[in-house]
Design a protein that fits this description.
Elements lengths: L10 E5 L4 E6 L4 E6 L6 E13 L2 E7 L5 E7 L4 E7 L5 E12 L8 H17 L5 H6 E7 L8 H9 L6 E10 L2 E9 L6 E10 L2 E11 L34
Parallel strand pairs: 9-13
Antiparallel strand pairs: 1-2, 1-8, 2-3, 3-4, 4-5, 5-6, 6-7, 7-8, 10-11, 11-12, 12-13
Length: 253
């Protein structure tokens, strides 16, 4: 995470328990806030210092004209601001409020898609190339939701499935697309059925773990038998993307 992901130009409302504040991120060094009601009501532009903390989280600090000092931890992954302020009276307050974006940033600052792509590729290759049971707890949410009717619900069921996989099961990742908290990956799996299958897996990511899964599978048809003469899956189809595929430590297909 670097400053290039700080959402300059974004306008947002933050609803704290006792009042609401509007924030405008004017630049990497200035912010405007507006408190419309209550004893703290005012509008002010302040000089800020921004420190990237990783995963779309930034520490933003400033001092106001009346001497109050504020540090915001702005978490754009979860849509929350944690605010820590010392008022001129010396009173120290802590507040947390959800973010409601009223005007988006001048440029896209969300790096979740790239991180989520990496998570999905690592999870799929860990389970279905290396057959690593420990990766289930590492990468999947405890209340994992499974939409495949042939697989029981929950993370424990997935661990049992991986532990019982034949050594013939081998997964090849291909094209992968992501937006927000959703990732879709096109791949081929051998050893799952009598013939290789081409599969599209769709995942929802929550708090850095795979929380929900949908999939569709189709038996692979050789090019020589396909009416269109184009392969259903090409093992090199993902190479055009910037995200590298992790090297397998397991058997070769």
């Amino acid at each position: 995470m670097t400053m290039e992901h700080f959402p300059i130009g974004q306008e947002m409302d933050v609803a704290y328990p006792n009042f609401e504040v509007s924030l405008t991120l004017l630049s990497a060094t200035q912010l405007r806030f507006e408190i419309k009601e209550g004893p703290l009501a005012r509008t002010e532009t302040v000089d800020i210092q921004v420190v990237p903390l990783g995963n779309s989280i930034f520490a933003v600090s400033w001092q106001e004209k009346d001497g109050a000092t504020v540090t915001n931890v702005q978490n754009y992954d979860r849509g929350l601001v944690h605010s820590f302020a010392t008022l001129p009276s010396g009173e120290f307050i802590r507040m947390t409020g959800p973010i409601s974006v009223t005007r988006p940033a001048q440029r896209v600052s969300d790096d979740r898609p790239q991180r989520n792509k990496a998570l999905v590729i690592e999870a799929m290759t860990s389970l279905f190339q290396r057959h690593d049971v420990s990766a289930v707890e590492q990468h999947y949410a405890a209340d994992y939701i499974q939409h495949n009717p042939s697989i029981p619900q929950g993370r424990d069921a997935l661990q049992t499935l991986v532990a019982g996989l034949s050594q013939d099961v081998y997964y090849e990742p291909g094209l992968i697309v992501a937006e927000g908290d959703l990732v879709a990956i096109h791949g081929r799996i051998r050893g799952w059925a009598d013939v290789p299958q081409v599969v599209v897996d769709l995942f929802r990511i929550e708090d850095g773990k795979l929380a929900e899964h949908w999939d569709v599978l189709q038996d692979e048809v050789p090019v020589t038998m396909a009416l269109g003469g184009v392969a259903m899956f090409d093992s090199d189809e993902g190479l055009a993307q910037s995200l590298p595929t992790p090297k397998s430590k397991g058997r070769k297909p």
